[in-house]
Write a structure and sequence with these properties.
By secondary structure, the protein is an all-alpha fold. It contains one helix and no strands. The longest helix is centred in the middle third of the chain and has 27 residues, at about 10-35.
Length: about 35
C-alpha cells in the first residue's frame, strides 16, 4: 500500500481505496455468515 509522498491528495485516495476494500470485505463476511 502506498504511503503519502505528495501530501493530502494521495492520502484521501488511499483512504477511499481502504474504505472500498473494507466495504467489500464486510459484504463478503455477511455472505458467508448468511449461507
Amino acid at each position: 500500500m502506498g504511503t503519502t509522498d505528495k501530501g493530502y491528495g494521495t492520502d484521501t485516495e488511499a483512504i477511499r481505496k481502504c474504505a472500498k476494500y473494507i466495504q467489500k470485505t464486510a459484504i463478503w463476511i455477511q455472505n458467508i455468515l448468511v449461507s
